[in-house]
Amino acid sequence: MSLPDVLTVRRARPAWFAPRVLRTEVLAGLMVALALIPEAVAFSIIAGVDPRIGLFASFTMALTIAVTGGRKAMISAATGAIALVVAPLAREHGVEYLIAAVILGGVLQIVLAAGGVARLMRFLPRSVMIGFVNALAILIFASQLPHLIGVPWTVYALLAAALAIIVGLPRLTRVVPAPLVAIVALTAFTILAGVAVPTVGDQGALPDSLPVLGLPAVPLTLETLRIIAPYALALALVGLLESLMTAKLVDDITDTHSDKTRESWGQGVANIVTGLFGGMGGCAMIGQTMINVKVGGARTRLSTFLAGVFLLVLVVALGPVVALIPMAALVGVMIMVAAGTFDWHSVRPATLRRMPRSETAVMVSTVAVTVATHNLAYGVGVGVLVAIVLFARRVAHLVEVTGVLDPDGGTKIYRVSGQLFFASSNDLVFAFDYAGDPAEVIIDLSAAHIWDASTVAALDAVTTKYRARGTTVTITGMNEPSAARHAALAGHLTAAH
């Protein structure tokens, strides 16, 4: 083999072939797998299904998205957001209908990806993104509180030890991830010392067999479609929103770009596979992704794939051992993840004083709604709506109308500047002196832009008022898009009387 051929082969090898990268990816995947177990069990309980369904979903989602996803190193598994969406369906119609909804939701995600849903991410303001991150951090922290209420005092001692290891060990060495050391050390201590504290095994039964491929046992009728379609659509939208925003967050952390369209249809494929193996569906997980990317330092698909493999091995082959892990160790890991996820700079007094109030209002509304509803889709939706309203209000105040009378007194020229749309053009009709103006009026729009039918209707109202008084009105200076919109709509927006 020639030297150029050798160099080509070396360039084609995956990045994780390097021993140092491989070690990082393997250890990160193991940490994520350990953190996934109690989360998947808890989300299964929220959804009202057997813990095995959540664990199988986490396994199949991680393995599939490692291949189909568009964001390297991002973790997808069973999530609380999806659990909240499908819980009513599982409660009212049973697990088989839930699985059917997961498969249909995956199909809808592929359809939405083909329709370009990923491009909508560009319309998310930065303040909504910050609110999304801060709300996630609060939810991650809040989800750990039940494990700290009504427990023996030894739990708090173990938690303190876990936090000390996670914070202090990196100052000594980074060869082995500190969270993994904390989990192993505290598990060994509780076993050897015979300390009785809540463990992973107390959260629910772990599976002892592999998931089986099959179709949900539901009738293939329109009635079934009517039942599952609303839940499938909600699952598709919530899953894509959380996944795409998490992908954008990882893009910022790693200074790399991801393929959002591929991630969208990849999530769909992962949910279809998950449903066929009897899982409850899922999407990207911000907490476990932060463990993988920020704590573990993973950057490739291998960590995501291994997280799924390790998860299956841990719960099926090593279930009795995993069941002995104290919850205090995992709670310590998740608390540090929450602290690392929160954007502390955004709430500093100096930042808040410098930031426009509208931006702060958008961030706060996103956080408040997300935390109150435990639904990221609601929080982001409200945040975007607040941002739109405040932006429209701010832009509407930038429209100015000034009138200048010609020296001969026979013509008055009104110069309109600014962005003309429904919020700014509603008061346009009151900016003219209909009774006092001369016989000819020119409205100069060279410094303005017409955006919608509301503005055309407002200009129609102005010209109608002038013509009723025998005044000739001429509109000039429109740019090409404004002229085209005005020509198409002028005189056709109100019924003739």
Number of domains: 2
Number of separate strands: 6
Please summarize the sheet with the most strands: 4 strands, mixed
Distance between the termini: 87 Å
- Helix share, percent: 55-70%
Keywords:
497 residues; alpha/beta; Transcription Regulator spoIIAA; 2 domains; four-stranded mixed sheet; two-stranded antiparallel ribbon; Sodium-independent anion transporter; STAS_dom_sf; membrane; STAS_dom; transmembrane helix
Walk me through what this model shows.
The chain has 497 residues and is an alpha/beta fold. It has 2 domains: 13-355, no CATH class; 400-489, 2-Layer Sandwich (Transcription Regulator spoIIAA), CATH 3.30.750. Helices cover 62% and strands 7% of the residues. The protein is built from 20 helices and 6 strands. The chain has helices spanning 3-12, 19-47, 51-68, 80-93, 95-114, 126-142, 153-168, 178-193, 222-254, 260-276, 286-295, 301-317, 319-322, 327-341, 349-354, 357-373, 376-396, 422-425, 453-468, 480-489, and strands spanning 76-77, 283-284, 400-405, 411-420, 440-450, 472-476. The protein has a 4-stranded mixed β-sheet. Strands 1-2 form a two-stranded antiparallel ribbon. A hairpin with a 5-residue loop joins β3 and β4. α6 (126-142) runs antiparallel to α17 and α9 (222-254) crosses α10 (260-276). The protein is elongated. The N and C termini lie far apart (87 Å). 46% of the residues are buried. It is a multi-pass membrane protein. It holds the Pfam family Sulfate_transp. The chain crosses the membrane at residues 52-68, 97-118, 130-149, 155-173, 180-201, 228-247, 268-287, 307-340, 361-392. Keywords: Membrane, Transmembrane, Transmembrane helix.
